[in-house]
Amino acid sequence: MMRVFVTGGTGFVGAELVAELIRTGHRVLGLARSQASARKLRSAGAEVQEGDLADRDGLRRGALASDAVIHAAFDLDLADWAKGGESDGRAIEAIGDAIADSPRLFVVTSGAFGIDVPGMASERDESPAGGHPRVTERVAAEASARGARVALLRLGVVHGNGDRHFLPKLIAIARAKGISAYVGDGAQRWPMVHLRDAAEAYRLTLERGAAGARYHAIAEEGVAVREIAAVIARKLGVPLVSQSPEEAAAHFGPLAPFVSRDRPTASARTREELGWSPHRQGLLEDLEQGSYFTRPA
């Protein structure tokens, strides 16, 4: 069992990750940027390293005090991806430099939406520079070149109880504007993963992953956007509407580029190499039966 330094350990995905690590016998040292975050980590059974992604010394101390590192934090602002990308890049650089030429594995979180290839994306595909506002994979590769043992874990769109991000925003837009929209024929496909399955993918990457590898936490290769919009329409009792790209830009705002993208993504290699077997409910079932529509508007 390992002592693992975790950034982002109180977020939607990170909190489940911390619980998964502790549940399976690992010790967790979590980065906390506030007293509220520190209390949440301690209540989960983790130790606390005070600091944030801009605190290079704190990141260095946490990494060097641990056997491995999982970087799950990202300052998400859909209207300003560059800001989050800058802090993400600096944090990866600081941690990578701290543990360069050591045996510690550094698991870095990326996103499947950043892979822009024709057809089905796989772990073999690179995320092209400039293809996504996150700089994660470029900076992670630079850290690897300087001697850090980096493994990338690319997440699909994560869903589950406690989600505060992409799907709740789509629901809020549909509720506020009185329609549930999709772009064109709505055949765009999104890779999805349940929160619990994503946490297990992190743990297995930590325990069985190889430096230099790319892994995909993808349970469903591609759920059609029109199917997602149809569930939202039915649950809210609003019309299901197709929009042109121009209409969608005004309707969805910062989310428009994501709603318009077709990003089917496979995870066969990850399942084989890590022994990962996602089995929680899929997205459409979660939307139908989960808590997405029971939360306050």
UniProtKB/TrEMBL annotation:
Residues 4-215 form the NAD-dependent epimerase/dehydratase domain. It comes from the Bacteria. This is SDR family oxidoreductase. It comes from Pendulispora albinea.
